[in-house]
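Lay summary. Proteins are chains of building blocks that fold into shapes, and those shapes determine what they do. In this project we predict the shape from the chain. Here is one chain we studied, written as its sequence of building blocks.
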Amino acid sequence: MSFDEMWGQIRSNAVARQQSSMQLNQLPGSGGGGGGGGDYTVTSPDLKAVGNEAQELFHGFEVDAFYAGAQTNTAANSLDADGFKTGSALWTAWDTWRSQAEALLSACAHIHNHLEDTVVTHTKHEELLVTNLSVEQIDKHFK
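And here is the predicted shape, written in a compact code that computers can read:
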């Protein structure tokens, strides 16, 4: 097989894969959370449940994580006052904990906020794409 034949075969395979991966889910009654013949579907209740879990984790963890800070501060100050070097080490551990706790809280908030309207936004985008790409719309421009 020559290079040109090989290259042509690779290109045709790549185009076929790209075309098959860019199909829209257009089945009647598709409620937006996927549908169609794809193997990956997500429904609004699924996303809402994940978002709610992230929000619950945020609120529960926020209270508990920063309660520990007040207790750690008291212990670190007491150890320092008694001349123990572990007081400053305890404060360093708390600072690392606080930083990681804030990162987790930020991630939970981001997950909740992002998933809150994902299905609705996806449905609107898919409807827009279907409208813009439909043959009827394209044909209007050539008549």
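What the prediction tells us: The chain has five helices and no strands.
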